[in-house]
Design a protein that fits this description.
By secondary structure, this protein is mainly α. The protein folds into two domains: 39 residues; 74 residues, Cytochrome c-like domain (Cytochrome Bc1 Complex, Chain D, domain 2), CATH 1.10.760. The protein has six helices and no strands. It is rod-shaped. The N and C termini lie far apart (87 Å).
Length: 132
């Protein structure tokens, strides 16, 4: 009995097509996650705030937003670099005033940051206002 030589090639082709479909589906999911992150200023949108650790999760997220957007001018430890020292910014400005500064910038050279919005803006300005 002679074996059909086309069968192994058909199996390999079928597996190849299946692999391409799986990779395409994974790529679509990653593309959507990247688009969501870009829309939120480069930060992931998921924040898990449980009964315990919710406050620290928000603080960690706020610090990450600061490190991404602000630390190049204000220093990684808020001590200032090209921009002013923010270690006690909460004693000089309220959370609302800090929000206004982040959204609109200042005449002193700080640019506006319109990409920081919503929960990210709230978390960042709350975190900064707590530095007194």
């Amino acid at each position: 009995m002679k074996k059909n030589p086309v069968i192994p090639y058909a199996i390999i082709a079928g597996l190849g097509i299946l692999a391409v479909i799986i990779i395409a589906v994974i790529g679509i999911d990653q593309r959507q996650a990247i688009q969501e992150a870009e829309e939120n200023g480069g930060e992931p949108t998921e924040q898990t705030e449980g009964e315990e650790g919710g406050e620290s999760t928000t603080a960690d997220a706020a610090e990450q937003i600061f490190q991404t957007n602000c630390s190049s001018c204000h220093g990684a430890d808020l001590s200032g670099a090209n921009g002013p020292d923010l270690t006690e910014v909460g004693s000089r400005y309220s959370q609302e005033e800090i929000t206004e500064i982040v959204q609109n910038g200042t005449d002193g050279g700080m640019p506006q940051f319109p990409q920081i919005q919503g929960e990210d803006l709230e978390a960042l300005t709350k975190w900064l206002s707590e530095h007194q």
